[in-house]
Specification:
Helix content is 46%, strand content 16%. The protein is α/β, with parallel strands linked by helices. It folds into two domains: 197 residues, 2-enoyl-CoA Hydratase, Chain A, domain 1; 46 residues, no CATH class. Helix 1 packs parallel to helix 3 and helix 5 crosses helix 6.
């Protein structure tokens, strides 16, 4: 059997593939676990400057959880609670990943697939992309840990609209709602996701991590501490800062070291 979560490396860019194309990359409990493990490992790797998350093939990112699995591992509250622990740990790993995350979205991005995409920093999709979360038709709720990233991304009103109506909508509407960053022709999704990852990877990696950290911190209501405010100036003591401004003055492309 092939691995359902693949990790591919190309220099500072890693790609995590939801690899179950025969089921449109529908998610199983082992896939959720594998995705979390992969993201945690990549987040801890200082050589990784960007992570692309995608589904295998070009028919789907993911339609969400595999319903056929429910009868054995998610058929009652006790089982669902244990399944939820795995899902929510993976959601936390995605949310806390130090490296920027780019979702490369082909086709269907629904339910749990939408939840994963919402946890990425940027979302690139094709014109034929389809989005939604029709879990009301299964008699299920989107738990707090799963709903929170969606609410942060699109706001309460849009998140509630998506969940109450359960419609599947197109890429243009997803862009209008703020679900996706950029729409390109279907044939250009992979190339644009790669170009996006390369632009990120060319920047100072410490700066990318700080920007992600600062953005997460600004979601919390409590005032910033003196130490947090002071951290904004730590970049001036980095080797990357010296490389960056020297390259600018010399009209050269900087080659950052991540130090």
């Amino acid at each position: 059997m092939h691995e359902t979560i693949l990790v591919e490396r190309d220099g500072p860019i890693a790609t995590v593939v939801l690899n179950r194309p025969e089921k449109l990359n529908a998610l199983t409990r082992p896939m959720w676990q594998g995705l979390g493990d992969a993201v945690r490992a990549l987040s801890a790797d200082d050589d990784v400057r960007c992570v692309v998350v995608r589904g295998a093939g070009e028919r789907a990112f993911s339609p969400g959880n595999d319903i056929s699995e429910f009868s054995t591992v998610r058929s009652n509250k006790s089982q669902a609670r244990e399944y939820g622990k795995v899902m929510h740990a993976t959601a936390q790993a995605l949310a806390e990943c130090r490296a920027p995350l780019v979702a490369q979205i082909h086709g269907i991005c629904v339910g749990g697939g939408l939840e994963i995409a919402a946890l990425c920093d940027l979302r690139i999709c094709g014109e034929s992309g389809r989005f939604g979360a029709p879990i009301k038709n299964l008699g299920l709720v989107m738990a707090y840990a799963e709903m929170a990233p969606l609410v942060r991304l699109v706001g309460r009103a849009v998140a509630v609209e998506i969940l109450l109506e359960g419609r599947i909508f197109d890429a243009a509407e997803a862009k209008e709602k703020g679900l996706v960053t950029r729409i390109v022709p279907d044939a250009q999704v992979a190339a644009e996701a790669r170009a996006t990852a390369e632009r990120i990877a060319e920047g100072a990696p410490l700066v990318a991590r700080w920007h992600k950290k600062f953005a997460r911190r600004l979601e919390r209501a409590e005032p910033l501490t003196a130490a947090e405010l002071d951290e904004c100036f730590d970049c001036f003591d980095t080797e990357d800062f010296r490389i960056g401004y020297a390259a600018f003055l010399a009209k050269q492309k900087p080659k950052f070291t991540g130090k």
